[in-house]
Design brief:
Length: 733
């Protein structure tokens, strides 16, 4: 900067030698800087307008804001990435318009007030609760802070008054009072921040607990991510969005309540001071209200839609986190494939989309904050000067014509000085309060975006818990052949699940039940069969024919769009069905927790199951060496410690622990040796567990009595197996 300043000075001297004054040179330099800044700001808008105009013609009313996906460049690969991303956004927009026609964009509207009211009822459930206590104390501190501000302003006016009078005694006394009031004032300030943080945490706790109840209600954690397509990253909404929303609400309460108290009480104090000066008490407030109302109206008209901008930023940030979590989850597969280039490209695209949105918000804020600061710093300051001067210029107190002697003159001057100082301090506090109120408008608009996401998440949780899903379909409605009925663009699950309580009828019966995937792909139009206890069923067929889908329907994970499913009602301590996938889930906890999952230690004690029985179960699946190496209470990362075959045998140990009526086995022994596998199936049958198995191993046929064959084209056959039947060749590949 020093070198640049010297260089400018030299140019100015040369210009002055040529007849150009420094004043003219400065004007030219400032004008050039302003023009350059204007060109820099307006150029991106012009480019976006020119680039979007041909797309508007092609897509009609659809508006696409692609933005720059990569750093500026002109090569063909960058353009291809931009076009690909634009196509993705267009498809997402069409899907959103098709499936969420009733959805309202975030903003200050009736829907925002409705959603905010719903969330407030969750955060403050009762009139007398912990949150209302915090709010009461917080409100008391805010009011106390306002009175303290007025009192401090009066003390400062008195200090100036006694300085003008040269009254050392009174000055010292007021100064001591000023220092004394500083202790409670600083304590109240600290308490306001402390209570705001406590409020935010209390609101977040209420919302998190309510959200968790909805998230785990009726297996919503599965339905939201697999059956419904409206929430891509529930983890981000359950953590980041709720946290930001709770903090925004708590901060907004302080930002709105305290300025309102300040304006009300400071206005009364100013009117009282004007009355002492024998001036009109309505002229100043009327002028200030008119100016503030006019500037607020202008700012409201030109304010960008920060709610939509913030909501979109949160969407893109959540998607970026989703990609990161997906890479972490599938790191081994990606490393085997060597897919780091593709994954890095997707990460860069997601990050660049987030950067574009943030830059868009920064650009929108640039000129808006400039206009806002102009009104608040200069227009309002000028109005304040007029308000302060009016009582002195128009008041009759202390008029020069009424002056008698020098002592009264000094008294009038000191009184005016005291009024001017007090009024100035009060006006500064009032201007700060109004500025906070005006700034709160942006916070309210931003809050609308977070309210939209949090309330939308809870609405989706409520709907999915009731079996209402919204997901992209692979076929149109007229191609369903009447199997699936749609209502308001959403498939309606008209099938029924009937639980039987008859101890003599423990069979599983499907009557005209279609096998339909979450995206409404009909795999099997109608399936009818009856599985009695002891009917060990082998399920075969090519990939994608509906084998695993049948297990999801039997377990109640997928909705039934037609027909009836009759299953025995689960009784305490003995589940009806127990599903074991090919890749078992290892929970966080000890070795005992892995065996008894999803039971807890309390459930285990209630069932009177001892550790010796757990050792016997581990011996049945050839895992007794783990119990010998580690105790049942040792907590380890079992997902990484156990091998693939050991994980599958641990899942079988859970089966032997729970002893259900039916076992749904989906390639659950593919990594287990044949001898251990044979022993496991023999033990399961001896426990009275009916086996429903999906497998490609011919050695397991002998443990089953019936076979269900899918051909992959929608047809199926259910029959009894011959004793010497061998697996067909088409099911080996």
């Amino acid at each position: 900067m020093t070198v640049l300043s010297k260089y400018v000075d030299r140019i100015a001297e040369k210009c002055e030698q040529n007849g150009i004054t420094k004043h003219a040179f400065s004007c030219v330099l400032v004008t050039s800087a302003i023009v350059a800044l204007t060109i820099k700001i307006t150029t991106p808008y012009v480019r976006n307008t020119q680039s979007q105009s041909p797309r508007k013609i092609l897509t009609g009313k659809t508006k696409i804001n692609t933005g720059a996906l990569t750093p500026s460049g002109t090569d063909g690969s960058d353009e291809d990435l931009k076009l690909a991303e634009a196509e993705k956004l267009l498809v997402a927009q069409k899907l959103k318009n098709k499936t969420n026609k009733q959805m309202i964009e975030p903003g200050l509207n009736k829907e925002f007030l409705k959603q905010l009211g719903m969330l407030v009822k969750i955060m403050i459930p009762n009139t007398l609760c912990y949150e209302t206590g915090l709010l009461s104390i917080h409100t008391f501190c805010l009011i106390s802070r306002t009175f303290l501000s007025i009192y401090v302003a009066a003390l400062e006016g008195a200090l100036v008054k006694f300085i003008v009078r040269k009254d050392v005694k009174q000055f010292s006394f007021v100064l001591l009072k000023w220092f004394g009031i500083a202790i409670p004032a600083t304590f109240v300030n600290s308490m306001i921040r402390f209570l705001e943080s406590k409020l935010a945490l209390a609101f977040r706790t209420r919302l998190v607990r309510h959200s968790y109840r909805l998230y785990f209600k009726n297996q919503n954690y599965y339905r939201v991510s697999n059956l419904d397509g409206r929430i891509e990253n529930a983890d981000h909404r359950l953590t980041e969005d709720i946290s930001v929303f709770a903090s925004s609400v708590a901060h907004l309460y302080s930002s709105l309540t305290k300025p309102c108290f300040d304006l009300m009480l400071i206005g009364l104090a100013l009117m009282r001071s004007s009355r002492k000066m024998k001036a009109n008490i309505l002229t100043g407030p009327a002028l200030s209200v008119s100016v503030i109302a006019l500037t607020a109206h202008i700012l409201r008209i030109v304010s960008p839609k920060f709610g939509q901008l913030v909501s979109e930023e949160a969407n893109r940030y959540g998607y970026l986190r989703h990609i990161h979590s997906r890479i972490i989850t599938n790191a081994e597969e990606i490393a085997f494939y060597g897919g780091h280039k593709v994954e890095m490209q997707q990460l860069r695209q997601a990050y660049n989309r987030l950067v574009n949105q943030m830059n868009n918000i920064f650009s929108q804020k640039l000129w808006f904050i400039m206009l806002e600061q102009f009104f608040m710093k200069y227009v309002w300051s000028g109005t304040g000067m007029i308000m302060v001067s009016l009582p002195i210029l128009t008041g009759s107190a202390g008029d020069s014509s009424s002056l008698v002697d020098s002592s009264s003159t000094e008294s009038n001057v000191s009184e005016r000085t005291q009024y001017l100082t007090t009024a100035r301090n009060l006006l500064i506090s009032a201007a700060d309060a109004i500025e906070r109120l005006m700034s709160s408008y942006k916070e309210i608009v931003a809050l609308a975006g977070y309210t939209y996401r949090v309330a939308g998440m809870m609405d989706v949780f409520e709907e999915t818990a009731q079996g209402i899903y919204c997901k992209a379909t692979v076929v149109e409605n007229d191609e369903m052949n009447g199997i699936i009925e749609f209502r308001d663009g959403k498939p309606v699950a008209k099938g029924r699940i009937i639980y039987t309580d008859d101890p003599g009828n423990m069979s599983i019966t499907l009557r005209a039940v279609p096998v339909v995937t979450p995206n409404c792909d009909i795999v099997v139009p109608s399936l009818t069969l009856c599985i009695e206890p002891g009917v060990h069923l082998l399920i075969t067929g090519p990939n994608g024919c509906g084998k695993s889908s049948l297990f999801r329907i039997l377990s109640g994970l997928w909705p039934i769009y037609a027909g009836e499913l009759h299953i025995p009602r689960p009784v305490e301590d003995k589940p009806c069905m127990f599903y074991i996938p090919q890749r078992p889930y290892m929970s966080i906890g000890s070795l005992c927790d892995q065996i008894i999952y999803p039971d807890t230690r309390e459930d285990m004690k209630r069932k009177n199951i001892t550790e010796n029985e757990l050792k016997d179960i581990l011996k049945m699946v050839s895992l007794e060496h783990i119990a010998q190496r580690d105790s049942f209470d040792v907590v380890r990362d079992w997902k990484d410690i156990l091998s693939g075959g050991e994980k599958q045998r641990m899942a079988i140990a859970r089966l032997f622990y729970h002893k259900p009526r039916y076992a749904l086995l989906d390639e659950c022994t593919s990594a287990v040796s044949i001898d251990v596998e044979s022993s496991i199936y023999e033990i399961a049958k001896s426990m009275g567990i009916t086996l429903l198995t999906i497998t490609h191993r011919p050695t397991l046929w002998k443990y089953h009595t019936h076979i269900l064959e899918f051909d992959g084209l929608g047809s199926w056959r259910f029959r009894k197996m011959d004793s010497n039947e061998q697996q067909k060749e088409q099911f080996l590949h």
